[in-house]
Amino acid sequence: MAGRADSTVLAGARVVLPTGTVENGRVIVEGDRIAGSATEDARTLDLTGYWVVPGFVDMHNHGGGGASFTSGTVDEVLTGIRTHRAHGTTTLVASTVTGEMDFLAHRAGILSELVQQGDLAGIHFEGPFISPCRKGAHSEGLLRDPDPAEVRKLMDAARGTAKMFTLATELPGGIESVRLLAEHGVIAAIGHTDATYEQTVEAIDAGATVATHLFNAMPGLGHRAPGPIAALLEDERVTVELINDGTHLHPAALELAYRHAGAARVALITDAMDAAGFGDGRYQLGPLAVDVKDGVARLVEGDSIAGSTLTLDTAFRRSVTVDRIPVGDVVQSISANPAQLLGVYDKVGSLEPGKDADLVVLDEDFVLKGVMRKGEWIIEPGA
Ligand SMILES: [Zn+2]
């Protein structure tokens, strides 16, 4: 057909589509999109023996490659974004950690420009509206109760690019803040919370739709006090984030969430900090010092786990090879579900004609061998 850009046909691979896995499938890339048919002079790339899956979508990520999304310069933030892209994350939301309100508003301005130019898919504010009882790696002195006026201040500073707020919804102002976010199409996520079961149900009824790293930074599941975990797992309106790095969750906890919520309600995230894709050493997470040893990040003061050093290619491989989650379910949890939550499933999150050519090539052991974003190889298989 005249006027069409040359296309490339990725042939011979197992291609994971929303409808199932196609053996010896084809993905046609034309320009920056996936196409339904190839031009006559299309180039063919033989990917026999590989899997082709949609690019990963990470909705909770604080940094990587030695760079922090909360404090880094624009160049450093871009380094973090590129680090995660090289691990298959083609759509990324930048998460901040607790800081002063003015500082967070300032960061929202910087990050929003990267959203506008297409490098980020949005901003996630994790803190300061969280519980001192479940603060994790957030500065206790800077925590505050959720206040709709302050939530709005950060939303305004982000100029329409705020995608998610993590809130301890049981605190004063929590439910009003959930309602405000829901009204504006911003995800209200329940996390770093000390809520009871009943309080969690109330927040879901008010419009909260995500559990921030389920199990982590919230009360455990008790038989008389089922707490937030039972409420979040049982409600069809909620998607639960899971950090599958082998440190944050026991495999049985991951399996419990997959079985109970189903793959359609799980979002695999990294919650990565600067050391992801970089290495062990001393780092800063907002104002707090963190030591990373053997890939596990802990606060210097108090020993709390301080984010992860996970990348989503590792989470994918672990979910399939260690936890034995079916490949199609992992694809749904790592690409489609977060894309749907973020409101970008019309562009990314599955390998369908018309969408961005964002894809990951994995070998038979689920090791990443290629990444394409908007039709360009970030890592070319075999290169
Ligand atoms: Zn986080």
What are its keywords?
383 residues, N-acetylglucosamine-6-phosphate deacetylase activity, eight-stranded mixed sheet, Urease, subunit C, domain 1, N-acetylglucosamine-6-phosphate deacetylase, eight-stranded parallel sheet, TIM Barrel, single chain, globular
In short, what is this structure?
Substrate binds at residues 137, 216-217, 224, 248, 305-307. One of its GO terms (biological process) is N-acetylglucosamine catabolic process. With 383 residues, the protein is an alpha/beta fold.
Describe, in plain words, how this protein is organized in 3D.
The protein is α/β, with parallel strands linked by helices and 383 residues long. It folds into 2 domains: 79 residues, Urease, subunit C, domain 1, CATH 2.30.40.10; 286 residues, Metal-dependent hydrolases (TIM Barrel, Alpha-Beta Barrel), CATH 3.20.20.140. 27% of the residues lie in helices and 27% in strands. It has 9 helices and 21 strands. The strands form 4 sheets. Strands 1, 2, 3, 4, 5, 19, 20 and 21 form an 8-stranded mixed β-sheet that branches. Helix 5 packs across helix 6. The longest helix has 16 residues. The chain is globular and about 65 Å long. It starts with 6 loop residues before the first strand and ends with a strand. It binds zinc ion.
Class per helix and strand makeup: alpha/beta
Global morphology: globular
CATH topology of the largest domain: TIM Barrel
Top CATH class of the largest domain: Alpha Beta
**Domain module count:** 2
Low-confidence spans:
none
- Average pLDDT across residues? 96
* CATH architecture classification of the largest domain: Alpha-Beta Barrel
